[in-house]
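Q: My labmate handed me this sequence with no annotations at all. I'd like to see what the chain might look like in three dimensions before we decide whether it's worth expressing. Could you predict it?
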Amino acid sequence: MKIPDVPSAPLLIESLDQEGRGIARRDGKAIFVEGALPGERVTASIHRKKPTFEVGRVATVLAEAASRTVPCCAHFGVCGGCALQHVDLATQVAVKQRVLEDALWHIGKVKPEEMLSPIHGPAWHYRHRARFTVRYVPKKGGALVGFHEKRSSFVADMRGCEVVPERISELLLPLRELVGGLSIRQKLPQIELAIGESADVLVLRVLEPPSTTDEAVLRAFADDHQLHLYLQSGGPDTAAPFHPPGGADLCYSLPEFDVRVYFKPTDFTQVNHAVNRVLVRRALRLLAPQAGERVADFFCGLGNFALPIARSGADVVGIEGSEALLERARINAVRNGLDARMHFKAMDIFKIDAEHLARLGRFDRMLIDPPRDGAVELVKAIGDDAPQRIVYVSCSPGTLARDAGVLVHTKGYRLDAASVVNMFPHTAHVESMALFTK
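A: Here is what I predict for the chain of 438 residues:
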């Protein structure tokens, strides 16, 4: 049954949840209000009612919080790419720190000895990776290229984007015109962006090959906008250079460690290169690898942390589930002149046990950088010869908290320090880092 869109009685917003929604309480119920900030009095249009909670969006702000600011993007509120542009940056970071601290305590029953200063960087034009959805919608004048609308499978009618580099933002309208003129416009569902230090790549997901005429149009577009175009007919590994035919030599640098990390357009890399540099610097400072030590880098990927660790003089074993990523990590080791100190092992880390971990040998230090699922089997597998120091980099406060509970309560570690990493400004996404010592 459709709930009438009638504003609620005034609500006092107490805090923000992990999705950036304001939380109010009334008659024993939690009420989640999109667009509301702590300390504000608002009315809300409720669109979902359950016995213990309600969900809605701001109808009227009766008393405004000092942290409220004017969104930079004209599409904010419709586009689902950002959730927090109406909140000043300092408050965004403070909210994320509170989310991390709450997760550590309520899930893992642990508190860090020290909360380190948050890691943050540029607030706008920071995204060097993005995945735009493409839809050909004649009723809306042709092709749409952008992020999904909030809570919808529809594509937002975007004319620009404030979180990608300006030159990419300015491409959105030309891309719409390009797609609309192709014979395969209804067979092109996605365009992926990958930016390196010397090249911009767009990967076009094509469900059928472009025609000869399409190919000529695509080449001209790539030349006019100084782009490398790739075509992807299936999974990520099918992405292949289209024009220029040689492809792009994509990389990002970590100058402090004299390292360059080379990658393919569909490889996982951090979206925010500036923040990643600070992230790696702090991770290495906390890990403190010494020359001659043996260090494990679990979920090593392309070598974002392993290469700087090797540069410190330590011997590094990079462990990763993807053979393809490991091969590129090996190439990165060679290209950076670090292959003598780097070794790699393919392993399903999600299924690791004490016996498998023991076969890898003893490590002096360990870095863990898992996906959202965390690394619970790995931390459970740590035995009596455990490393004295572990740095855990996380993209999920919940799984970090769960794994921290295992390390502290069953493995004898102390949670020395933690910090948030504002890798995705204006979103509710929380990245973090923690240091565990024995």
